[in-house]
């Protein structure tokens, strides 16, 4: 599919907008989708490789009229529906997304992809939107495959926890990787924890890596870059020493010490939960 523009794409029942059953390849080149209000996966593939080049997606699950209660009600249902995603990949598929953009959106998450799939992203701009569970949500029972993102940007993307990556507690490691290389994370924000990443999995350090990435004005109540349940839950950052600052990284505390010489100073050793009671004298 080449040099095509679609506008006002919507449905009333669960179905996939673009669906390939098995075999062959799917290629989009210079294709634009605008004003999408859609229940289900927008693109779904079973055993077909996909190449998306110069694709533009604008106004995805967005109500232009803030007083349109019917639209807003439908929008909220879509955001809370885990089946409503941009791309769903099943089987041993390879997906390439190149020189593309996603702008102005409200989604549950961006991908559902199987454990044998591979997604390669180069020069993708994701701006001005909200993910309920982060752009990439790694959680059981979905055993997600490998994903590589490079030379891309996430800007003004919001969520409650981990707007870019959310990794929930896993029963085991599945040997797949999520890697970011030369990616800019700018003005991403979590209303609770993890302005870029939220992780409760002890395997996150072997799953998720950030190499040569820039973090600009990311925000969260706790951990403006990363919130990890324990030190082991924290992903790898190649430049962690350079991006360390107050509240940039947070984990659950294991111990709280009050300096007897000054009630204004305290130390938190971070990395686990507090199992004992905290005691101090307050005057």
Task: Describe the overall structure.
This protein is mainly beta and 283 residues long. The protein has two domains: 2-251, Pectate Lyase C-like, CATH 2.160.20; 252-283, no CATH class. Helix content is 7%, strand content 49%. The chain is built from three helices and 26 strands. The protein has helices at 69-79, 204-207, 240-243; strands at 2-10, 18-20, 25-37, 43-46, 49-53, 56-60, 87-90, 94-107, 111-113, 118-131, 136-138, 146-150, 153-161, 165-167, 178-181, 184-186, 189-193, 197-199, 208-211, 214-216, 219-222, 226-228, 236-237, 249-251, 253-258, 266-270. The protein has a 15-stranded parallel sheet that branches. β25 and β26 form a beta hairpin. 35% of the residues are buried.
Distinctive features:
Pectate Lyase C-like; 2 domains; 49% strand; 5-stranded parallel beta sheet; 15-stranded parallel beta sheet; 7% helix; 3 helices; mainly beta; single chain; 283 residues
């Amino acid at each position: 599919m080449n040099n095509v523009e679609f506008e006002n794409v919507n449905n009333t029942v669960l179905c996939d907008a673009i669906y390939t059953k098995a075999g062959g390849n799917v290629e989009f080149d210079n294709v634009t989708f605008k004003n999408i209000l859609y229940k289900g996966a927008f693109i779904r593939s079973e055993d077909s490789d996909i190449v998306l080049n110069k694709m533009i997606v604008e106004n995805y699950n967005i109500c232009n009229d803030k007083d349109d209660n019917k639209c807003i009600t439908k929008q909220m249902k879509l955001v809370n529906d885990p089946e409503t995603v941009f791309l769903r990949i099943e089987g041993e598929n390879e997906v390439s997304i190149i020189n593309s953009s996603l702008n102005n959106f409200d989604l549950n998450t961006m991908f559902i992809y199987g454990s044998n799939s591979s997604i390669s992203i180069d020069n993708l701009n994701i701006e001005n939107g909200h993910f309920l569970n982060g752009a990439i949500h790694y959680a059981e029972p979905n055993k997600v495959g490998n994903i590589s993102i490079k030379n891309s940007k996430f800007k003004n993307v919001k969520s409650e926890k981990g707007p870019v990556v959310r990794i929930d507690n896993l029963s085991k490691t599945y040997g797949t990787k999520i890697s970011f290389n030369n990616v800019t994370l700018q003005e991403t924000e979590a209303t609770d924890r993890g302005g870029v990443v939220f992780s409760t999995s002890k395997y996150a350090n072997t799953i998720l890596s950030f190499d040569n990435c820039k973090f600009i004005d990311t925000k969260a109540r706790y951990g403006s870059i990363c919130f990890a349940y324990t030190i082991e839950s924290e992903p790898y950052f190649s430049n962690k020493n350079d991006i360390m600052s107050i509240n940039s990284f947070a984990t659950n505390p294991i111990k709280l010490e009050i300096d007897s010489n000054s009630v204004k100073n305290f130390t938190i050793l971070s990395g686990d939960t507090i199992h004992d009671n905290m005691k101090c004298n307050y005057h």
